[in-house]
Amino acid sequence: MRHVHFDPLGGAAGDMIVGCLLDAFAEHREAVIAAAQSATAARCRLLAYGDGVLTGSRFVVEPVSSREHARQHGHEHAHEHTQGGHSHWRDVRTGLERSALAPSVCRHAVGIFAVLAEAEGRVHGIAPDEVVFHEVGAVDSVADIVAAAALIEAIGPARWSVASLPLGGGTVHTAHGVMPAPAPATALLLEGFALHDDGIGGERVTPTGAAILRYLVTAPGAPATGGVLARSGTGFGTRRLPGQSNCLRALVFEAPDLDAAGAPGHREIAVISFEVDDQSGEDLALGLARLRGADGVHDVVQMPAFGKKSRLAVHVQVLTRPDVLEEVVAMCFAETTTIGLRTHLVQGRALARRNVRAELPGAALGVKLVQRPDEAGEMTPSGKVEADDLGQVASHRRREQLRREAERQALEGEP
Description:
Low-confidence stretches: 79-84, 257-262
Structural class: alpha+beta
Mean pLDDT: 86
Strand order of the largest sheet: 6-1-12-11
């Protein structure tokens, strides 16, 4: 699976996130810029930029008049309900939903804004729908979020991570007056993320940047893992920092599950483990069956264990894709009585495989074909019938006959 890792040398802001991703994924530039311009009254550009030390890109947003935007796009946009950069969240959401954005892009943009609205609501003690965006309601922030949403959709399924973020410090001037840096809503959004003080103050992570990271990084405390570095990109912010570049770098790793030659391939797997000692066996079996059928879950394993007070317990281990880890964790809590669990990421190996159907008289059986190394290191195929397909066949002898014939038939077509 693709893994995008952010390296925040200078910090993280919406334009920096968009800039580094567009720098890395140049093939999506035109589509992403078009999406951002269609949803708000702005002209967006990606500029080549260098600060004398590093080079990369800057994502620049220039407001245009509503009349000019309507002439170019002929529809409503997310910024139409703003005045002086102040926008109600419900109006921003309505504007996005009425825009010409693709539904999937709109969903990501609304999701990012919703994360921010929830944090702002907690800070001010109001419902998210009553939140008024100030700085984040400005045209450039709306364009940054829409561009980020378009990139998330264009890049496709991926695991997202970020290295330790610079804390900053001092104060910032906002529509609510002077605030500490990071601002209160930003601090809420960064809970769980690693932060460090590099001695440079000011606002190093903006609310827009924090909202995008919170939306993307589902397990902020998990360590980043490597892989094959496929591409990288650097996005610059507008501020000049003393003694270092104000940039955010994206490192894009590719980790295919299987390689083309059939040799063991690399993949990243999330492991969830916990014990249960107070749930009936029949109900636990139902819950684990639901877990096995969940999207992204590879397998669920259970085994007997002795827990505290020498109680007989069940040890459960769930293997899942990293990008759905949080959803599967929530499902573990919902389907079992556990009140605590452990998670970690591991590097897996998998042999090349594919599934075929063997058509036999009165039965069609699935056969899993695997390329397996022999004594000489050559990859040779082996086959195994899917046991569930034999469930309706009576007698052990008949099942064995069908199994051998199906596997023979499937292997005949293999090199």
